[in-house]
Specification:
7 strands, 22% strand, two-stranded antiparallel ribbon
């Protein structure tokens, strides 16, 4: 795992597992959740930390600055917009599946190229779907 600073090449949206599971209408099952995220985020890269049950959607570097109001609304749910001043643990490019033995972070949706990131709108829709299913409204 490599620690990379956020806010220059990309930023990250930290998503609690409960929110992602609610959006996917699933229990904790990477064989269901990973394809769901791939489809929902249109192939945008996502890192999963199974130990903490968190997901990190990699987004354009500007997102934390431009989505400040939405970020404040999401914070009570455990969603965080991580940009400058934060680092993210990035797994090796070949770690693309959940393994029970190591319980290490892996690419839930692998990065196809350095320029391919999650669309902020797709991430916002995912959060809204999870919020709605958890009973928090979720309208954008």
């Amino acid at each position: 795992m490599t620690m990379l600073p956020l806010g220059t090449l990309f930023s990250a949206i930290r998503l609690p597992g409960d929110l992602v599971l609610a959006a996917a209408c699933s229990s904790w099952n990477p064989e269901v959740i990973d394809p769901f995220l791939d489809e929902t985020l249109d192939g945008g890269p996502v890192i999963c930390d199974p130990h903490q049950r968190r997901y990190y959607a990699l987004v354009p570097a500007s997102m934390p600055a431009t989505w400040t109001q939405a970020a404040e609304e999401w914070r009570p749910l455990g969603v965080e917009c991580l940009g400058r001043g934060w680092v993210v643990g990035v797994p090796r490019v070949d770690v693309t599946e959940f393994t029970v033995q190591g319980i290490e972070s892996y690419w839930s949706v692998p990065m196809s190229s350095a320029a391919m990131l999650c669309s902020p709108l797709h991430v916002a829709r995912l959060i809204a779907a999870g919020m709605q299913r958890l009973g928090h409204g979720g309208e954008l």
